[in-house]
Specification:
- The longest helix is centred in the last third of the chain and has 24 residues.
- A 5-stranded mixed beta sheet has the order 2-1-5-3-4.
- The protein contains 6 helices and 5 strands.
- It is an alpha+beta fold.
- It has 2 domains: about 80 residues, Beta-grasp domain (Ubiquitin-like (UB roll)); about 70 residues, Orthogonal Bundle (DNA polymerase, domain 1), CATH 1.10.150.
- This is (2Fe-2S)-binding protein.
- GO terms for molecular function: 2 iron, 2 sulfur cluster binding; metal ion binding; oxidoreductase activity.
């Protein structure tokens, strides 16, 4: 049996440990925000967090997840108010929208570790996420906008302790 956490909820899986996390999310849990793109971990559409780090769920098996905390786009902020999600909406980043959940998950992980990333750091962190609509300038602008808000929220929650 494989046990892990998904969006804060304990999971117990007794099926095939080689099942890709992506199929578990979409087909078993009904969490369709995480998308299938290439199936080869090259496009980033299936990006989720494992213990806070971005991973490709199409190539991560359930057997790899024992004891891991997985967060999907649905669990990033249930009300859609994570600073990255807000910046995405404010700057109308999405065009077709297919890649955006993966883009947002990669951006959120970047800002957690690098509160004020340079253009180069943004490009490096986001290089594994492909946007066929080429909204890269809006993606970078949204990450920069969100960076200030993430920093403010982190500073205010840290000072409250």
């Amino acid at each position: 049996m494989i046990t892990f956490t998904l969006n804060g909820q304990a999971q117990r899986f007794e099926g095939d440990p080689e099942m890709p996390l992506l199929w578990y999310l979409r087909d078993v849990q009904g969490l369709t925000g995480t998308k299938f793109g290439c199936g080869e971990a090259l496009c980033g559409a299936c990006t989720v967090h494992a213990d806070g780090a971005p991973i490709r769920s199409c190539q991560t098996t359930l057997g790899d997840l024992s004891g891991v905390a997985v967060t999907t786009i649905e669990g990033l902020s249930p009300d859609g108010m994570h600073p990255v999600q807000v910046a995405w909406r404010e700057l109308n980043v999405a065009q077709c929208g297919y890649c955006q959940a993966g883009q947002i998950m990669s951006a959120a992980a970047l800002l957690k570790d690098t509160p004020h990333p340079s253009d180069e750091a943004i490009d490096d962190a986001m290089s594994g996420n492909i946007c066929r609509c080429a909204t890269y300038p809006r993606i970078r602008a949204a990450i920069k906008r969100a960076a200030g808000e993430v920093h403010r929220k982190t500073a205010s929650s840290g000072s409250a302790k």
